[in-house]
Amino acid sequence: MGLNSILFYFFAALAVVSAILMVTRRNVVHGAVYLITTLLATAGVFLLLQAEFLFITQVILYVGGIMVLFVFVIMLVNLDVSLLQYQFNRQRFVAGALALALAAQLFVVIKMGKTSLFPQARIPEVLPKNTEAVADALFGRFMLPFEIASILLLVAMIGAVVMAKRRV
């Protein structure tokens, strides 16, 4: 077992454990910290796959930007009111049933799969540069959807600013 395999299993286990801890913690701040850990572990997997562009995007955009927004929202929301609400505690039976159904589906998929869970794929001799491939896809075939998504994000940002100014 090589170093890449060991690092992959480490990052994968860290992502799964921190995702489970993120969902099960009652303290919202602890959940946000576990979400940051999950995102960083996912970035580590991207780096192991030699997807440097996705790695740095994950770290800068999600861990750096989105999580700062989450932490600000957590600080601004009145947590005392949310602690007094027990509406989600009644849904443990439904959550357990859904978890069992998901586990059963996963078991069936793995059992019926024709290949093993870890297929031995041949690695091409010359790997394309990841950033160049992303740029070719974004500014080639997917130019129109990329521009439509950017316009939608711009409209959402302007709408958020207008709604925030109206409340102040």
Chain-wise SSE layout:
Elements: H1 3-24, H2 28-48, H3 52-76, H4 79-84, H5 92-112, H6 130-141, H7 143-167
What characterizes the major β-sheet?
Answer: none
In angstroms, what is the radius of gyration?
21 Å
Which superfamily, in CATH terms, is the homologous superfamily of the largest domain?
A: NADH-ubiquinone/plastoquinone oxidoreductase chain 6, subunit NuoJ
Which fold name fills CATH's third level, the topology of the largest domain?
A: Four Helix Bundle (Hemerythrin (Met), subunit A)
What quaternary form is this? single chain
Brief overview:
With 168 residues, this protein is mainly α. It has helices at residues 3-24, 28-48, 52-76, 79-84, 92-112, 130-141, 143-167. The protein is extended.
Could you please describe the fold and organization of this structure?
This protein is an all-alpha fold. It has two domains: 1-112, Up-down Bundle (Four Helix Bundle (Hemerythrin (Met), subunit A)); 130-168. Helix content is 79%, strand content 0%. It has helices spanning 3-24, 28-48, 52-76, 79-84, 92-112, 130-141, 143-167. The longest helix is centred in the middle third of the chain and has 25 residues, at 52-76.
